[in-house]
What we know:
Glutamyl-tRNA Synthetase, domain 3; three-stranded antiparallel beta sheet; mainly alpha; 4 domains; two-stranded parallel ribbon; 21 helices
Amino acid sequence: xxxxxxxxxxxxxxxxxxxxxxxxxxxxxxxxxxxxxxxxxxxxxxxxxxxxxxxxxxxxxxxxxxxxxxxxxxxxxxxxxxxxxxxxxxxxxxxxxxxxxxxxxxxxxxxxxxxxxxxxxxxxxxxxxxxxxxxxxxxxxxxxxxxxxxxxxxxxxxxxxxxxxxxxxxxxxxxxxxxxxxxxxxxxxxxxxxxxxxxxxxxxxxxxxxxxxxxxxxxxxxxxxxxxxxxxxxxxxxxxxxxxxxxxxxxxxxxxxxxxxxxxxxxxxxxxxxxxxxxxxxxxxxxxxxxxxxxxxxxxxxxxxxxxxxxxxxxxxxxxxxxxxxxxxxxxxxxxxxxxxxxxxxxxxxxxxxxxxxxxxxxxxxxxxxxxxxxxxxxxxxxxxxxxxxxxxxxxxxxxxxxxxxxxxxxxxxxxxxxxxxxxxxxxxxxxxxxxxxxxxxxxxxxxxxxxxxxxxxxxxxxxxxxxxxxxxxxxxxxxxxxxxxxxxxxxxxxx
Length: 496
């Protein structure tokens, strides 16, 4: 068998370390068997998907040395490798399911769906929405169709019984069909959901093994059923354990930086990051902690993966990165790394226009720009004490700004200014007062050059990490405060 694995990230934000983790294990498994590793871009979410995010996926994976054999940028025999370019394929296969009675058009409105879910809950049933709940009478369906009402395509699913899914690490997994909903396959805009696109693409691209996170276990019955409906052989499944924070919660950006590019910006070595990700639930046969990608590829055996949730510990990563700096680099190599990382001509030319008018001597350059080359800043609550607004208002500004910037795809100075100025206006604050806590969180001082310019130079990943750090420095936001903030923020957005 010609082994083929894939990674299929969505270009909807900063590239996640979880993506790199899954990519690493798929790459290792494919190469262990002399197979191919495929990169597919799942950009069916046309609202959130951006070319910028897609490019960051390429850049971050290549920075780590996780190269692919086929993909949108390198081609291959099974393209296109970008889902937005495969719309006709999904439409054809969805219609095939409808024609064979395995799927149906659902004209139910959002209000009707809410009412149905409430009715099921009120009856004391603990089950998902089923086709019998959703399918209208023939007359009602014809009427809505004649009226041009929007519809989605949903799959037929059993109402009772058990589904048994085979997993390389977990053996047979038994799941109750009552908990599996009549999954949407095609959205009302004609774009496929992950479930249809994933199954169709994996089959047509001849993927033999799917190594993915364990969060997809509950979706496996839907995927297995779709393979049965199409009459296709299903790839072998392997659900890897999720990366977790030190408190055992699922790895999240609120508790740990999750962007791959954040670690690049922080000055971690790609070799160390890959080494650390390789230790997430797996170990070398000799149990050594420090190893190269090449050594991992040579020794890889998926059966050595532990199902215990691997802990992504920044302190441990920093320790390992320090080993790489001290043990694997000569002085000359370290000098080259430093120049490549932050002292290159391109970086200097991007910074100089912002600081040149503030310089009297060359020695002014480092102190005036040091915050750009730093990681998380050494700030404390006292750093914010001289500002006009109180701590509660500062926390609100930092949190609202973070939410606004997490949704921003165009990370350019003008776009940043427009978003933050709009937020200041919505909060009825002077721009100067609104920006003050952002200055402290992002640059460590109010004496820096424009905070928008600083954010643009720092990049989205580092900027957001510093805003989160600023929130933590000011005491953080309790669950009660967060709920109140979320309500206020939603009200702010709806008013605009």
